[in-house]
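Appendix C reproduces, verbatim, an entry submitted by the partner laboratory led by Prof. M.T., so that reviewers can inspect both the input and the predicted structure.
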Amino acid sequence: MKIEKISQMALYICIGIILVSFALFLTIGYDNPVGDNNEPILTDIIMWLMYLMVIVTAGLTIWSGCRGMASSKGTDPAASTGVPGGKVSLITWGLFIVSLVIGLVLGLGESDFKAADGTVTTAGWVTVVDAFCVSIGILIVAAAAAVIVSMTGVLTKSAIKK
């Protein structure tokens, strides 16, 4: 089986698992242990699914990067695909760092958070969580823009020498 078919099948399986998990999460009852705080019963499933997806994604990213470096030694990636990989990588890392800095700056000055059950989260951790939430939002918008640009073929057309 070709690597593209395997990748496509894995993507469809992941999307299916995510859709079923979130559908169950949103449709199955709620547990109201304390006051007005309503918690869906399947919160743990969603949290474990996200942990699993992060671990699997990190593993596949490392595996793909190592495999890509091993198979492309001595070749110019832009010459074969027309996409300037070095520039894309530099822009991606730069955007990641900038989004984290923006998130940290926007999250500064947060106060401690006390949950309904009495658990207290320090202001530092609230700032870190805010930074990651802002960073995720920025990176999702950037990823959507990158997909749109990729679909138009602008980078590929402009990189190919005529």
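The mean pLDDT is 78. Additional entries are available on request from the coordinating office.
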